[in-house]
Design goal:
DNA polymerase, domain 1
């Protein structure tokens, strides 16, 4: 068979090739003009737009739930990261802080340009600032009077004994006893609002009380949630029977807590309770260095 024989077709074969070619041509034409015969449908994004506010609310709630009470002067880098700062912002903040700056208010904190106003507004309710230490100044009086009067002593409420507490104007033996007993149960005070929780102090003049006192949170005694017994947890005013039991059971089932925030995995520990008890919790006991 010669090479030409492969390119020779009979009449029936030629008709089949022509028909196939015609069908292919029609198919090509159809796919090029079919868009002219179809209706353009617009995608409805209204449902998606309605979901945007809900998504934003969820994000805001998650951001709020991640907050905890903190002192910006002592917070660790890990703590700042948990609050949402980047490593670059933390580096700038540390450089600013290294100059000896102490933050006594939100205005002081906003002077560091690594901390935005939006950030401060978001965490404002969770910041604990130390009180400014007032220097004792002697008040000069007439030369004829040999005695000099000193300013009222500012007394720290987390370390003062009963004698010092009684020396505060407006605080007698009864108030002093109530304050000491509640301080022992709490582990220390972090805010003046906690004094409204003490039975019998309804008539205490809080404004006058504040002018004579301060709250040093470095004296707070914390509970180790990885080793605390049921009784130790239950003895704290903010943790009830069921919550104490739930913490113990969770620890038995899941092992030790890796982060204080992990306690929020317990159903009975909501975000409001967590913010109250977080300053009183720790993961391990400090070891004495020999």
């Amino acid at each position: 068979m010669s090479f030409k024989d492969y390119f020779q077709f009979n009449k029936k074969e030629r008709n089949g090739i022509l028909l196939l070619s015609f069908i292919l041509l029609l198919t090509i034409i159809y796919y090029n003009i079919m868009y002219l015969f179809t209706d353009k449908q617009k995608t409805d994004f209204s449902e998606f737009d309605n979901l945007i506010p809900e998504t934003e609310d969820v994000i805001k709630k998650q951001q709020t739930d991640s907050l905890f009470v903190f002192n910006p002067n002592t917070l660790s880098d890990k703590g700042w990261i948990m609050l949402g700062l980047s490593e670059k912002q933390i580096s700038i903040f540390r450089n600013y802080q290294s100059s000896g700056i102490i933050f006594y208010s939100s205005e002081d904190l906003s002077k560091c340009y690594a901390i935005s106003d939006d950030f401060i507004n978001r965490v404002a309710d969770f910041i604990i600032f130390p009180q400014r230490k007032e220097k004792k100044e002697k008040v000069k009086i007439k030369k004829s009077d040999e005695k000099s009067a000193e300013q009222l002593q500012i007394i720290d409420l987390n370390s003062a004994d009963s004698i010092l507490l009684i020396s505060i104007n407006g605080v007698g033996p009864f108030y002093s006893k109530q304050i000491l007993e509640y301080r022992e149960k709490l582990g220390g005070f972090i805010s003046y609002t906690q004094f409204s929780e003490i039975w019998g102090l309804e008539k205490l003049d809080i404004k006058n009380f504040k002018n004579q006192t301060k709250i040093d949170t470095t004296f707070i005694k914390k509970i180790n949630i990885n080793s605390a017994t049921f009784d130790q947890l239950y003895s704290h005013p903010y943790i009830n029977y069921n919550q104490s039991k739930a913490i113990i059971n969770y620890r038995l089932q899941h092992g030790q807590f890796i982060d204080i925030k992990d306690i929020q995995n317990i159903v009975l520990i909501d975000s409001d309770l967590f913010r109250k008890i977080a300053p009183y919790l720790k993961l391990y006991d400090s070891r004495k260095i020999r």
